[in-house]
Amino acid sequence: MCLLIAEKELDTVARKAGLLDGFEGNAQTFRILTQLEPYKPDFLGLNLTRATLDATLKYPWFREIDEDNKPKNTKKGRKFSVYKLDQEVFKFVRPKEEYRQSGKQSLEASVMEFADDITYSVHDFEDFYLAGLIPLNILLQTPNVLDNFIQDWINSIKNDNEQLKLELEKPEEKKRLKDFLASYLPPEYAPRSINEITYVRANSSLLIQKYLQSASIGESYGEHGYLQRAFYEEIELKLLQRIVWKYVITNPRLATQQYGQRKIIRKLFDIYKEAITNKQNNLIPSRFLQDGSLPEILEEGDENEKKLRLAVDIVASLSESEAVLMYRRLTGLEQGSIMDYIG
Fold first, then answer.
1. Residue 87 above 90 pLDDT?
2. Residue 190 DSSP class
3. Half-sphere exposure in the Cβ direction for 84 (13 Å, CA)
4. Got the DSSP string for 227-239?
5. Measured between alpha carbons, how far is 179 from 173 in angstroms, rounded to an integer?
6. What is the pLDDT of residues 112-149, one digit of tens each?
7. Which of 40, 154, 194, 224 is most buried, most CB within 10 Å of its CB?
8. Mean predicted confidence (pLDDT) in 94-106
9. Nearest-CA neighbor of 136 among 34, 257, 237, 247?
């Protein structure tokens, strides 16, 4: 299941149901570490230190909501690391209000974000190329294809990144990026053969080392926190992400599959929301129950908000295979086996 498609759909259905800050992967990670992952029978969350939790706050703020109760069309409206429901834990992690309000990453979070970007660039590109979804030879060898690709990329860049636009428009930068991609393209090996796989993975390792060595720690807080990233290496990372976006995430051939994925997310959310409201605890995975009952947390504060958040928690906790299995079971498409246990 495409993680991005699933995240967007879960965010959409949660907000439609009335959960203003919807769903965001980074905020969900913080919630898992502090609220959901079992540590002791009477203690949920992993009991991590403030410093460790602070390092996970890639976007250390709540979601920005406009006057119509919709996410603002800003970075803070799209990306955030803390749900409003978890603000007390946020206060624990950052006791000083000035630090909470600053919106600044810790140095450790800046390093984590860089590692995250490398993973989503290099490893996703490698995986999808080896899966045959990225036609790198066509992109490089068919006239005008790469030029048109870069122009589409330029047209999509928001006005707040004028420097990237100007750089991509330079003929010498287009040539540099073409040479960069050409160095990744394997010789004429058989697709997915041992030779091709080892060649591609060796190149990926070299790229990772290159990007790690290109970064340094600065004294002032900048676009990427206290980590200073090299400009041209940053463009390469963005290029790899853009290629994955075009040829995989928005691939029309995957439209029917993605439609099915969105339907699964919508249906599971509705089923679990109804089960929580009606206290049908037998339908709720046991890892979300305490002594067979819903956690007492639902009895505190805004009950409806907590119920909706719990429904989100359950759906977000499912792996791809678990989500498909539960959808087929709960909608009667397939009975399944008692051995197909989901705790």
1. yes
2. P
3. 11
4. EEPPHHHHHHHHH
5. 10
6. 999 999 998 999 999 999 999 999 999 999 999 999 99
7. 224
8. 96
9. 247
Does the structure show a pLDDT above 80 at 49?
Answer: yes
pTM over 0.85: yes
DSSP secondary structure letter of residue 63: P
Phi and psi angles of residue 299, each rounded to the nearest 5 degrees, phi first = -90, 0
Q: How many residues does the chain have?
A: 343
Q: Which helix (H) or strand (E) holds 217?
A: strand 216-222
Q: Read off the amino acid at residue 188.
A: E
Show the CA angle centred on residue 112, arms to residues 28 and 322, nearest 5°: 35
Contact in structure between 77 and 64 (CB atoms under 8 Å): yes
- Residue 253 DSSP SS3: helix
The secondary structure of the chain in percent helix, strand, coil, rounded to multiples of 5, reads 65, 5, 30
103-112, 185-194, 245-254: least confidently modelled range: 185-194
DSSP state letters, 302-343: -HHHHHHHHHHHHHHH--HHHHHHHHHHHTTS----TTS---
